Structures are given as structure tokens and as C-alpha cells.
Amino acid sequence: MSAPSADPALAATPATLEIALVKAGRTKIRYPARLLHDDGVRITVRAPWAAPGARDFGFVRFEPGDVFTEHYWRDRWYAIKEVYAADGTLKGWYCDVTRPAVRDGAVLTVEDLDLDLWCSADGGTVLRLDEDEFAASGLSAADPVAAAAAVRALDDLEAMARGGGLLVG
């Protein structure tokens, strides 16, 4: 058992963060998550499936009872979400390409840039997702630097998934 932190800033850290997922300038979803870790670069939270009902993507089904351990970075253009079924079985990793996360007190804001990647628990299925939405978003014309960073992030995620490196320690 660890001793309480003597650092007042750490002692004041909330046990719960509100995750605000923003897309195209609008809040797509907000949900509470339990803060597990924040070292100033990576923030890790745990949250139940936040949308109403189930969502079947064809390659995975997210449903009530699922639990997500979500890893966000202040210096990376993606988030990695470990997806667990209600019984604790790992379903896989859902990765969002995002701008680096911004934490302001108890709110973590993440801007979704449309590109996603799915990797099944056994690593046998790795899918690049929503590249058509990304192309249609206009980000390449509006912010070519961000668009290039987003494409690099998706390439990096795919390389990590195919190399078995999505495990976040």
C-alpha cells in the first residue's frame, strides 16, 4: 500500500474526469471516467460504454456492460482504448486519431479527427476506419499540418497493432 502523496497538487487531483469528445467544433459526447493515471504526458481513465444501447460495427459490438480503459496523450495525435466485455474478456483496441488531449481541471477534451483503427484481441484483425470521412472533412485543405499529423498517427497505430505493440503499460 502506498503512502498518501505529499504533493498538494496531486492530492487535489479529482478521482473522476469528464471526457469531452469534440468533432468538427461540436461536442459529440461527454461522459464521466475514473482517473487511473496522469503523469503530465499520458492520462489513463476507465469508463463504461457511454452511448445508449449497443452499437454493432460488424467487426465488434460495443454494448452496455463493456468497460473501456482509455489512454490519452498530451503529445501524441491518438488515443488508445482497451475494450473489455462485461465479463472482463478483452475484445480489442479501438484507436482514435485525435489532436493531443487537453486537460483543464476535471475535464479532458479530445478532438476527434475522423480516422480510427481497430485491432482485435488476438491481433488477427487490424482495420483502418473512416478514411472516407477524413477525406471529406476538409482538414487537408483547412489545416494541412494537422492532416499530415493525423495520417502519420494512423500509420503509427497500424504499425504498432501489426507489431503487437498496442499494449499500454
Q: What secondary-structure arrangement, pairings included, does this model have?
A:
Layout: H1 8-11, E1 16-23, E2 26-38, E3 42-48, E4 55-56, E5 61-62, E6 67-73, E7 78-84, E8 90-98, E9 102-104, E10 107-120, E11 126-129, H2 131-136, H3 139-142, H4 144-162
Parallel strand pairs: 1-10
Antiparallel strand pairs: 1-2, 2-3, 3-6, 4-5, 6-7, 7-8, 8-10, 9-10, 10-11
Can you tell me about this structure?
This protein is an alpha+beta fold and 169 residues long. The chain is 20% helix and 45% strand. It has four helices and eleven strands; from the N terminus they run αβββββββββββααα. The chain has helices spanning 8-11, 131-136, 139-142, 144-162; strands spanning 16-23, 26-38, 42-48, 55-56, 61-62, 67-73, 78-84, 90-98, 102-104, 107-120, 126-129. The strands form two sheets. The protein has a seven-stranded mixed barrel with strand order 1-2-3-6-7-8-10. Strands 4-5 form a two-stranded antiparallel ribbon. A hairpin with a 2-residue loop joins strand 1 (16-23) and strand 2. Residues 1-11 have low confidence and may be disordered.
Based on CA atoms alone, the radius of gyration comes out at 16 Å
**Helical residue percent band:** 10-25%
- SS summary, helix count: 4
Taking the sheet with the most strands, its summary is: 7 strands, mixed, barrel
Number of distinct beta strands: 11
End-to-end distance, in Å?
20 Å
Structural class: alpha+beta
Give me some keywords for this one:
single chain, 169 residues, alpha+beta, 7-stranded mixed beta barrel, two-stranded antiparallel ribbon, 4 helices, 11 strands, 45% strand, disordered N terminus
